[in-house]
Amino acid sequence: MSSAKTALKAAKAALDAHKYQDAIDQANAALAADPKSYTANVFLGLAHEKQGQLEASETAYRSAVKLKDKDPLAWQGLVSLYEKQAGKRLDEYHDAVVSLAEIFMEKDDRARCQSVLDKYVGDAKKYGSRTQLKHSLEVYLPNGPLYDYLEGRIPQPAHTYAKIADIVEADEKQRINTEIGQRRTRLGARIDQVTAEVKREVLEGSQLEELYGAIVDWTHDDEVRRQYEEKLLQRAYDTLITLHTPKKAAKREHVTKLAQGLVILKHPFQLAWKIKLEWNDIEKLDDLDAGLLREYISIFPDEGLSKVLRGYLESDISPFPKIEASTRDKAEKDEDSGPMSAADRLILMSEGIEECPSSILAHRLLGQYYLSLEEHESAASTARQGLSCTSVESKISGLSLQHSRDAISIVLAMALVQFQAPRHHPEAMDIFEDILRRKATETSALIGIGLILEEQENYTEAVDYFCRALERSSEPRIKAEAAWCKALNGDTESSLHELEVCLAEMEGSDTRTKSLRSQTLYRIGMCMWNQDASTATRRDRTGAYARFLASLQADFNFAPAYTSLGIYYADYGKDKKRARKCFQKAFELSSSEVEAAERLAKSFAKSGEWDLVEVVSQRVIESGKVKTAPGSKKKGISWPFAALGVVQLNTQEYGKSITSFQSALRTAPSDYYCWVGLGESYHNSGRYIAATKAFEQAQKLEVSFENDSNKDIWFSKYMLANVRRELGEYDAAIAGYREVLKLRPAEFGVSIALLQSLVEGARHYVELGFYGRAADGAREAIWLAREISAIQNDAFSLWKAVGDACTVFTYVQAYTPSLPVQALQLLLETGVDHGVYDLLTDIDGVGKNAAQTFRQGTDDVGVSLVFSVKAAILAQKRAIHACANEVHARAVAWYNLGWTEHRAHISGIEEMQTSSNKRPFKHLKASVQAFKRAIELEAGNAEFWNSLGIATTDLNPKVSQHSFVRSLYLNDKNARTWTNLGTLYLIQEDLQLANEAFTRAQSCDPDYAQAWLGQGLLAGILADQNEARNLFTHAFDIADSSSTMIKRHYAMSTFDHVISCPSSSSINNLQPLFALHQLHSQVLSDLEFEHLSSLFAERISDFADAVSILDLVASNLETKYETSESPVTLVRFAQAKADLARVRLAEKSFRISAEASETALGLSEDESLDEKAREKVRLSAYMTAGLANYYQGMMDQAISMFRSALEETEGDPDIVCLLAQVLWAKGGDEERNVAREQLFDCVENHNGHITAIMLLGAVAVLDGDRDTIEAVKDDLQGLRTRDDLNEQQQSKVVQLLTAIASLYSQEDSNSSGMGEATKSVMLAPSKPHGWSQLASLSEEAFPAEMAVLAATKAAPPRGTLEAKDLAEAHAGTRRLDDAQRAIMVAPWTTHGWEGLV
Questions:
Q1: Which stretch, 213-217, 591-595, 1229-1233, has highest mean pLDDT?
Q2: Are 204 and 243 in contact, with CB atoms under 8 Å apart?
Q3: How far apart are CA 515 and CA 535, in angstroms?
Q4: For the whole model, what pTM was predicted?
Q5: Of 625, 623, 599, 624, nearest in space to 613 by CA
Q6: Do 123 and 90 meet the contact criterion of CB atoms below 8 Å apart?
Q7: b/e code 192-202 from CB counts within 10 Å (16+ = b)
């Protein structure tokens, strides 16, 4: 023990000497001697502290505290140690300070106790976090162990609680923001949901409510108390919002209690008053505390709810007594010295509702007020907003608020009963029924259902509901409604008495009573009006009339009374002016006055005031009266939709008019005029199929009033004919117009429509290629125009149609002899000064004299064509005169004249009237002038510029280009203009620009044939003949039948291809031949293409047609040569004769063929003619003459001709073969030897010539020359593998080889023949000739069936097999059905017929 004391003394001395390491050693020595030495631990802790060894120091102090926890020395050491660490150990610091302070308290040392606490709190504030500062401040709180001892020396609890509350507020705010920021980034998180969850978590565990409550309890400052009472209520309310519904009840009670306290104190905190007023779920407004409402108004005079409350309390519908002026505050008196007007009251309440959009009470009061003012739309809107507010508040508070919800729902339903009735009746009925399920005797709901049933004309049930309402209320209004329902149900006598009784009970001067009296007086008048419908009774001014006037005296704004007065004045008072004023007043007051609106609309329609008709109809539609509610017995109203549709039809708003008429037809599906209006709307909008169906439906309804003379049933027929015309069904349209004219023969517009349909139908037939029908239609149109001109001869449409009808004959020139010249002459000379025809006469030479020179009866096609063209020009000039006062029509008339002049130019009538070789341009120049006049009148028309460009293409290319460019500037999507521009570039040899223009035209309209024609011409210039032919073919396929240019180029390119490809099928010649036949009907004297047509006819074996064409061509060329003596014409004449001779040969008219050949040879003797053409003509003539003589048995002459042909061609192998055949046929040995020599020479000189080899093989077989046969056989074997042989040649090769094998083989002849046939099949299994040969040698059915299959695939269009070969393949099966097929394919051959035997 002594050693411990010695060590302690030494340690104390070392500490005093600041020798801290020695002190540590001595303290350790003391502890070694006495481990429970308190002082040694204290000295050791102090020494370590001085050395900066804080952890060792703390350990030593803690050891000392464990030995003596009530001794302050060690605790002071710990406090000093923690204090030096600058807030790093504040939590341990807190515990040490509290322990030391408690020791000082036990020793009654207040000063040191307070000093320790204040020093600690200061360090926490200086170094610690908000949480640590809050923890430090808790030592001052009343619930701490030191508060009672230090009370008065430490801060007031309210102050401390306030600081802690501020810290907690900041911490919670930071936590909420941090958590929201972290959670919102999670997958699928929504910001509103995340915010609610975070706030719920934070607020449920918050201490703020306790802190606020403590502040309220401990503070002595009333202002601070009220401030924290507000915060407490707000905090509790915020917490209530975040809680789930099951937890809301307890919190709601707490919030309500807090709010009640503030309201009792009349503290101006808005939330408290809101909770008190909004959560007060009262059934009736009478249950409200008027004093509380007025207190709210006085405390919050500028709040929105206060404005609504003030307006309501001062209104007539308020159940609370008014405040006398003497009791008002002076401030209120200064602000409002008198009672508020109704307008000011409504403005005040409207401003208030905007300022408190979430107030349930405000919406409920304003909805009731709107309902009293009969502002049903505003009442419904306000009630809907109120229900939304109720749902929100119910969700917040957890209260059902059912009474408030029901009250607002009743306001909504009552408003919907009247607003746009009956549109919203189903919704109102659902609301009333829902309320009655909870409150079976709710008077308002019973009345509402009664009103709905009354509107639905279900009067019996309506009376029942009104009687149920009367059981709880004896209001005169309900009695009057019940009586009125009885009147509407037919019981006018008893209902009249009941209404008069009700009227006596309606006393009062307020607005609602006056309005009710007015309504009752009107209903009494209507009962009297309907009780006796005689004219005298209704005219009596002391009866119903007097009640209507009394109704208006009671309420000048009661609309139905004005309607009834209007009916009285219109039908019985004979005062249309007053009636119209009454109807206007009624409709101004209420758009639901349908009767007044209908009479007004009819009046406005009669006077042509369509804008007013539209306004009236639209208002009626918007009123909701036109459509009935589902299940209602009342019929809908269709006339507003029909009237609106007519207005929209007149203003060309066809889409809207379609909708309007459809709406009308949903209500009245048997309305004839609505169907007609709908059809006309569809027609004008281009929906012709739908228009057809609408007019057909209208015609079905005509049966119901067919005998009614007031119905204009013809109009639907007329419009249906118009639709047929637009659809291109001209025959049906013409029949329709004729039917209309039977009903209304003097209808000029229908006659013009028929005339236009005839003309358009004629042009349509031209496009389809029915030229005879086109001529018939044009001729009929001219006769009809003659009839129309007798009625009215100054119509632009009439003369335009006449001009177009005459122009049709220029497209079908072969039918011009049928032109009714006499009718045209009478038509053009009737009712006009001939000076009208002198327009442009100085240029085109067609004037009044031209009209007087027409004659009937000529069969000359050229003369008739001239007549038709001149008549067309005169008719278009007459059209210009007919529209002299209309700028647009005059521009169109000049445009039409321009095209007619241009048509005259390209029709060639100028060449017919002159003998000069120079082509005249007078009609073309007149066309240019006409187009210029059109452009002067309407410069923005792209078609006019395009036409000018076409007309000036030959006259002035620069002007033409400018015109096309200008047209494209106005409309760059016009394929015709691009094609015309490309044609101009093509004429000017600018191929690149031409190609670009044609390509642009094809992109604008891929189906425009002329663009493809232009590309074909361009390809032909670039020597790409295959591409040109393909383009011409495509153009021909997509073009109509009016274009002659396309037919010409298509026929020429096809013939060139046929010439260059002899193996092509004859079916390829059909389409060009049809095209040339159409061309023959369209164009006069086109001898070149007539000649070409004969060549196509010859190739398809139509020899009769070819002969007739060639006879005509030869005759015309002979006439032309006699006139011109042109060498070119002579060559063409000779060629025609040579071709005629060849066709006659094919026709087996051998003598005529020989004569024609000799004529051709005679015409072509002149060596000055074109050498190449002369050579072809003479060769053809020699060959034809040789064959003709051969078939006549004149062998010598035939041989002579063939020898001459050989001389002309210098040994052509084909001619050698023909000559050999003729020599062999003559039968002499010498001739046959010559034939053999010729064939050997031909084979030698022309190696591989098919015909020569085959003839030589046949001769060798006939002669039995085996050596020659073997040589020829090798050549034939080589031929059978060549690709350039057609089906017929291959078949002949196989037949010859089979014959050789059968005749000269050492084996069985049949087997040898089958071997050759089998070899042919192996070499070409897809060809029919091998299979056919094999079938002829075999008894099996399979080769014959394969022959049919192969022949079918080789037939056109997939191959070039001839019809006779296909028939032979079918006949080879030896079946009856195939024999019939063979006859069908080629009835002129014997194969099929033999199979039938």
A1: 591-595
A2: yes
A3: 30
A4: 0.67
A5: 599
A6: yes
A7: eebbeebbbeb
